[in-house]
Amino acid sequence: MNMAVSGRSPFDIKRIGSFIILAILAIIAVYPFIWMVLTSLRARNTIFSGPFIPEEFIIDAYPQAWQDTEFGLHFLNSLIIALISLAGIVIMSTVAGYAFAKLKFPFKNLLYILLLSTMAMPATSLVIPLYLQMQRLGLLDSQLGLTLLYIGSMSPFSIFLMRSFFEALPNELIEAARIDGAGEWGIFYRVMLPLARPGIGTVIILQFLNIWNEFIYANVLIQSSGKQTLQPVIFNLVGQFNTDWPSLTAALTMAIIPIVIVYVNMQKQFVNGLTQGALKG
Predict the structure, then answer these.
(1) What does the domain layout of the chain look like in residue ranges?
(2) Of 270, 146, 166, which is closest to residue 212 (Cα–Cα)?
(3) Which of 41, 61, 194, 225 is the most exposed place for a label (fewest CB within 10 A)?
(4) Is residue 125 over pLDDT 80?
């Protein structure tokens, strides 16, 4: 009996300890979201003085935030820019990732190193050069210019990610397709691309999150109020001396809905993408 208990004790203690640690991390991670939602449902004079859970739930902040920010217009702007940018990023990253992983061409390693070097540049250091370049190209204050900027600036990381996924796929599949008479585009589209769906799902989730929450470029490059994306408009709700916290948190709560929808629909591919390397071989 003592042996059985002693044999189970280390396992039980380790399991309980792991559960406690995960529970603490989960609470820390979800606390800001819960606070944001509860703040959007409470009276303005109880933000910092009332209980954590409001005594009365008020939804007045949601229609007010919708009206004050013209939420529908800017939500649509963000959605269109995000979808077009995401389509461009996925196309470029899958094609270039496959080429860097499976094809042979001149200066391949040099081009890949140059591509990766762009990831070392912080976004804030590029604001002024990009502003001047957009001005010369006539793309300043343009949603098209912002979309092209997102595609160009976020594709290097996606190419790096997709190259890793394509490298994990066996070369024997390519050789078998070539023997059957398939061309390079046929091999890429019909054989390799379906096998790289976990990587594509990972790219979609990560880059949609980056595009949807991007603030610096959107705030600097687009000045017309009717063309602005959602994040700069929500930031305008932050006052210099006084902030309407229920309206601000209500707008933020509505703004995260697309992120939740994308993650819920792509979470299987995302998890598979994160674990593919661990399961290799």
Answers:
(1) 2-40, 69-279
(2) 146
(3) 194
(4) yes
